[in-house]
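Risk register update: the risk of archive-format incompatibility is retired. Evidence:
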Amino acid sequence: MSNECVHNHEERAISGTWVIDEILKALEKGYKMIEIYEIWKYETVQYDHNTKTGGLFPEYISNFLKIKQQASGWPADCKSIVEKEKYITEYFDKEGVSLCADEIEYNPGRRQIGKNPLNSRLI
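Archived output:
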């Protein structure tokens, strides 16, 4: 068995789609790029907690997070109106999502409807 590759450059070449990190790693390991057909560049956007803007699909996330959170019911320590108002305010400050007090009620089916899209589309 020979250790020398008998293929020519064209036979060893591959074509495909890669993210830039993979390309940089391949170049680092000595691979060569013969031809580039297309490059797509995306701006990196991060959610800003202060302005409640930016990020990837913020409206999508906020809508399903609201459904999930309201269907989770009130936290055990929220008994009085003041505690419930404080919870809604603090939740908005942390997540940027406005909860509706009249719609906060434990509903496991509805909670799952809100949770599934969040888990299947992210991270």
